[in-house]
Amino acid sequence: MRVLGASVLVMESLTLGFAILLAIKDQSTVGIIYGSILALILFATAGILKRRSGFYVGTVLQVFVIAFGFFVSSFFIMGLIFAGLWAAAIIVGRKGEAARAKLMASQAQKD
After folding, report:
1. Are residues 33 and 107 in contact, defined by beta-carbon separation less than 8 angstroms?
2. How far apart are CA 60 and CA 11, in angstroms?
3. In the 8-state DSSP scheme, what is residue 72?
C-alpha cells in the first residue's frame, strides 16, 4: 500500500510541476506559489507514508489538487483522475498486504 501510494503522490507532484509551467503565463503569482507549495507537500508526503497519518494527509491533499483546477482548468479532470488512482492504491494495497500476510503465515506454519 505504501509503495503504490508513494508512486501516485510522486507522479502527482511531477504533473503538478508541469502544470505550474502552464500557469506561469496565464496566472498570478498566487497560483504559481500555491501550485509550487502543493507540489512540494505532495512529494514530502510520499516519504511519510510509513505512518498511518501519511495516508490521511495524502487524502486531504487530493482535495487541494482538485482545487488547483481553479488556476489551471485541466486540473479539475487531472485531480479527479489522481484521486481515483489514490483510492485504487489504497484498496489494491490493502488486498496485497492481506495476501502477503496470509502467505507469510502459511510459510511460518511450514517451518
Report:
1. no
2. 17
3. S
Domain boundaries in the chain? 2-110
Grid coordinates of 56: 490521511
Residue appearing with cell numbers 508526503 = 45
What amino acid occupies position 105?
A
Q: Cβ–Cβ contacts within 10 Å for residue 48, how many? A: 14
CA distances from 5 to 46, 49, 71, 72 (A): 7, 8, 25, 24
Q: pLDDT tens for residues 14-60?
A: 999 988 887 788 777 888 899 999 999 999 999 999 898 999 999 99
Q: Please give the span between the terminal C-alpha atoms of the chain, in angstroms, as a whole number.
A: 27
pTM of the model: 0.84
Q: Cβ(61)–Cβ(42) under 8 Å?
A: yes
